[in-house]
Automatic annotation (TrEMBL):
Stored InterPro entries: Fatty_acid_hydroxylase, Sterol_Desaturase_Related
Keywords: Membrane, Transmembrane, Transmembrane helix
GO biological process, one term: lipid biosynthetic process
Protein name per UniProt: Uncharacterized protein
GO cellular component terms listed in the entry, alphabetical order: membrane
Signal peptide start and end residues: none
GO molecular function, one term: iron ion binding
Pfam families assigned to the protein according to its UniProt record, in alphabetical order: FA_hydroxylase
Domain of life of the organism encoding this protein: Bacteria
Location, primary (coarse class): membrane
Protein localization: Membrane
PANTHER family assigned: STEROL DESATURASE
């Protein structure tokens, strides 16, 4: 393990060079491991896959995707072994995909799906990682805000771990939100109001859901920055010093529960239709990745209508003039309403992260961080990150 860690420290952040086999090695290892996880999903669907997501994709789609992944993993792994002196990545990809084939490969039989009170969202993680990587990595290379930032920038493994954990625990989060909503629905929900909402056209429901959700999340987000004990959780998200498609995944689990409950509970109580809620959830997933991405978009008038990367990058900037600005997640008009909108005409921030002492590295130590007492007395300052000195 120490040798592998040292290898990544020496080579993981080095620029890629065409023809050296590193790109093929990383792709092979990633696809090989995902193919192995996919076969496990076939073998243990009731424990590893989510019931809601199983209704979205069919078996033939899953098997075709698995076949393509196995073929690419084998071929690119072989290419890495032939071209690169350090063959660990290629060997990892070939061995992982080989094990997937040994366990059944594309011919693996699906075991009977029983009823379980809880299951991990392994299928959700596989699909989300594949789609996000296939869409955003090419965009970040073609339209880079920071062309010198590597795909495997510092701390990418930490953020990939956050991505894995948050997607694996998606069903637990949904159970928590559903239970919380069920507790309130008896006395807080209005049947007449829900009926009126459900009679609205689907597109109007969707727009209204986005506005309601952003209003709630705006004030919670603002509290995260001004209430010291809430900031300690939110500081984990702001601790990333590099912005890309993975950076938005760095969120403390307590913050995930608080935010998802605060945002989704009013939408459920107001009676928005499942289709409107599903459309909103898709928007959340896409915009969360896009807003943090290393993509230079000249949005023009769209910058004042929808939260795009430059808008949210300034929220993450280590710049004293933007500490309490740009809280909105979807609609900049929410910041305009409450006086927290601030966006320079063309400039992008150059430094990201929190003020004061840096947070510990690694997902485990960062999750324990909010529960530790501060080592030093807070200094008198208006910078929220300095509360963590």
């Amino acid at each position: 393990m120490e040798k592998i860690k040292a290898y990544f420290q020496r080579h993981g952040n080095a620029p890629f060079k065409l023809g050296e086999g590193r790109v093929s090695g990383y792709i092979s290892a990633t696809l090989g491991l995902l193919c192995l996880l996919a076969v496990l999903c076939f073998l243990f669907p009731e424990w590893l896959t989510t019931a809601h997501l199983r209704n979205v994709y069919d078996e033939q789609f899953a098997r075709t995707t698995l076949l393509l992944g196995l073929a690419l993993s084998f071929s690119l792994g072989t290419l890495n072994i032939l071209l690169n002196k350090r063959k660990r990545l290629g060997i990892t990809g070939v061995l992982a995909s080989g094990l997937a084939v040994f366990l059944g490969g594309t011919n693996v039989q699906i075991n009977p799906i029983g009823e379980t009170p809880y299951s991990l969202g392994l299928d959700w993680f596989i699909l989300a990682l594949l789609i996000s990587a296939l869409v955003f990595i090419p965009l970040e290379k073609l339209y880079s805000k920071d062309p010198n930032q590597n795909i495997l920038r510092p701390h990418w493994r930490t953020d990939l771990t956050y991505f894995f954990v948050s997607h694996m625990l998606v069903q637990f989060i949904l159970i928590f939100i559903t239970a919380s909503s069920s507790f309130l629905v008896g006395w807080a929900a209005s049947t007449n109001l829900q009926t009126n909402v459900q009679t609205l056209p689907l597109f109007v429901q969707f727009l209204l859901a986005v506005l309601v959700a952003d209003l709630g999340q705006y004030w919670l987000h603002r509290l995260y920055h001004v209430v010291p004990w809430l900031w300690r959780f939110h500081a984990v998200h702001h601790s990333s010093t590099h912005m890309d498609w993975l950076a938005g995944s760095r969120i403390h689990f307590v913050e995930i529960l608080l935010t998802r409950t605060t945002v989704l509970m009013p939408l459920i109580l107001l009676g928005f239709s499942p289709h409107a809620l599903n459309a909103y959830v898709i928007l959340v997933g896409v915009q969360a990745v896009l807003a943090h991405a290393n993509i230079r978009i000249d949005g023009g008038w769209l910058n004042y209508l929808v939260v795009l990367p430059r808008y949210h990058h300034w929220h993450h900037a280590r710049h004293k003039d933007y500490i309490y600005k740009n809280y909105a997640i979807h609609l900049p008009i929410v910041d305009m309403l409450f006086g927290t909108f601030k966006l320079p005409p063309k400039e992008w921030p150059t430094h990201y992260g929190i003020f004061g002492k840096a947070l510990p590295s690694g997902i485990l130590r960062q999750h324990l961080y909010p529960f530790r007492r501060p080592c030093l007395k807070p200094e008198p300052t208006t910078e929220p990150g300095a509360l963590e000195k």
